Amino acid sequence: MTVRLTVDMAAWRGHVTTTAQAYGPALVPVVKGNGYGFGRPLLHNLTADLIGPLEHVCVGTIHELDGVPSGTRPIVLIPSLVPPATSEAAVMTVGSTAHVDALRGWRGEVIVKVASSMRRFGAAVDEIPTLMRAVENQGLAIAACAIHLPLAG
Known about the structure:
The protein is of the alpha/beta class. The protein is built from four helices and five strands, in the order ααβββαβαβ. 28% of the residues lie in helices and 16% in strands.
């Protein structure tokens, strides 16, 4: 059996535009994996068309850094055991001292991920001081802290 999904592009574009206007410059789009079936290159182009130039865009892994528009700094959501080629390439996410250790020798910005009830990766509350010390000792700059909040209800 074949399943076919058809997207009403006018409605989708309208929804993205309305959402972008509601959040303004705080919006950071997520373009990862296969681009939710559209492909990442198409979504990067649509994002630029609908929202305009972006300071940041989130990608899933360092393997998804290719294709991010020039002038847009990607945020890598999933910790990597291999750093990107340059410190300017991306803002990395760390959720444990092992993630920090994997970035040894790399100098850049990180987002410290804190665990939530979603049970995604991230530091438990009692691990945060140790993780913050590891980030500082490694000479990394903290860009932000993040938590993956559960859905309402």
